[in-house]
Write the structure tokens for this entry.
Amino acid sequence: MSVENKQIPDPKQLPHLLNLLDDESPEIRLEIVKYLLSFGSHLKSELSKLPPEIVQPRTIALEKILLEHDREILLQGWPSWQDASLDLEKLEAALSLLAQFQSGLKFHYASHNISELLDALATEYLAFAKTNDPLELAKFLFEVKGFTGAKTDYYNPQSSNLLYVLQEKKGLPISLSCIYMLVGARLGFVIEGYNFPGHFMAKINVKGKFFLVDGFNGGKILAEDEVTHLGDAGTSEHDGQPSPAKSVDIVRRVLNNLINAYQAQGESGHQQFMIDLYRTIQEN
């Protein structure tokens, strides 16, 4: 099949086109790339309709093709998260956008999206709970479900990808705290993010007493006045005193972690892209 002079891309041709990505001719491969990109924002949705066995063998080639396309899509949609009315809605929207970008084609083949996975955890907790308070939720997430810190894989950028963390049950302190906060919000709990130098935890109020929940260390519960020093190794943009964190603070910190993670892995293109996203927040 010739891909020249095609005005309207035909989804029925996608299986054949994907086979041609392995063609020995650079000219043919270039024409295939042009044709695939002519689908525009519909390409991923059309690919997701195909059986995984057709797409997955060519995932690496497709993700290279789609990288610039994905960056453009994220840049266009990025400002929308700040339009949400509630602070945690802003956080969930921003983390969902980042997860979609970081997961690439895997996001479209995931059995659930971030919101659905958080909903499922909240529903499962209600069947588990005996006392129904934030301390019980911490026990459920970090002991029963086994969410924990990515201590041997800290600089993996996926440790900041909430879809990955929800599926693999390991992540950075801020990622785990965000899951705790967002599941808690579905249950009516008030759980705040809290910045520490080199670390991040969640703050809760139970019967007038304040506690800090350290998701990275197995959901360890600390009385607020017991916290005098936190020295966990890791990336952080926060070098001052402990302070509460709103959604915009958390998103900045997630982006800063991604900037450092991509730098550590030598992925300068991704690093610069996260810097560009970070700067758009600074300007608002």
